[in-house]
Design brief:
Largest sheet: none
Number of strands: 0
Amino acid sequence: MTGGGFRPLIRVGRIALRAYVLLMMVLLAFPIGLVVVASFQGGLEATASPDGWSLSAYEAVPTHYWDALWFTVKSAFLATAFALVLAIPAAWGLVRGNLRERRFVSALVLLPDAVPSITLGIALLALFIPLGLSNSFAGIVVALTAISLTMALRFAEALMEGVPEELEQAAVTMGASRVTAMVTVVLPLLAPGLAIAALFIFVHNLVTFELLLFIAGPHSTPISVRLFTDIVGRGVLPQAIAMSAILVYIGIAFHTLIAMTVGARYLAGSAMSRKG
């Protein structure tokens, strides 16, 4: 077959690829779009027509929803900070220490992703009750920190791989301690990637549900648990849909911030830069 004979096949392949990508985008965007449209129409029976759109559902969002959202933001922020503080030294030790156990430790850290969140929730509940951490802000932060460590260590390891060890060695040669080299040389280089990692971890903590369902309570109710309990008890009310849409807006805002600043591709680039 001549080169010209391949052109129709190439054209068909490109069309099929574009159709596949479009289908994936539709499947990913449809639930989000449905929630947003429904929030303006006051029910899940959303239609494409803009007739009847209003902000009444947003105006009806009760105070306890906003309190739960603020509680979630605070706990997610603290858990993100704690997870990164714990993950950065661990990643430095795994990458710079050339530990033989690194592969085992990295695989062990991934274990929470392989275990159902319900199982982790039951385990944490059994641990938290005697410690007095169930139904408390501290318990929520500890739980979110625990599940955030997996993602935090993944990011931190990838970023640490992208920082040439020669830079640290040069600082040590000039009289700096290993800790000083870490703080003054490595951390500034990691900062853009860590900012992106923090955004991803924060958004993940913001919408975590199954794990927190077991340890939350009247005095410590994240917004995801609050929405679930209200929907189970009272049905899908317009204000619940509106608050769900607000969570969508927050997630989109954070991902837009990532795209407009450094960009998620920094992670892949940093892991490959100056390596060979």
